[in-house]
Amino acid sequence: MIAFDIHHDAEGELYAAAARYEDRVPGLGLDFIDEVERAMMWVCDHPPACQLWPDLPPELGIRRKLLDRFPFGLPYLQLEDRIVFLAVAHLSREPAYWLSRARDYRR
Length: 107
Prior knowledge:
Blueprint: E1 3-6, H1 8-24, H2 28-45, E2 62-66, E3 72-78, E4 82-85, E5 89-90
Parallel strand pairs: 1-4
Antiparallel strand pairs: 2-3, 3-4, 3-5
Helix pairs in contact: 1-2
């Protein structure tokens, strides 16, 4: 399994979304965190398996892992030594708001 980093803003998005789900239904926030963590581990085991993020230039190399149970995607970059998760992005909100974060990780 390859190592990974989570952009600090993505970590905030993870916990904010989990809190919203937890407020709705007790335990749902923890389910959300568990699903995100499982998805991240899967990506680290299969980095090139996910499709490139639609509507972005392919040369950016930004891929996405969609969650099964929640309407979120995890955009990520595969670097030589690690995976970098750029966001925990709700799929029906502002598209690619997180794109500028990729500049933090020069390839």
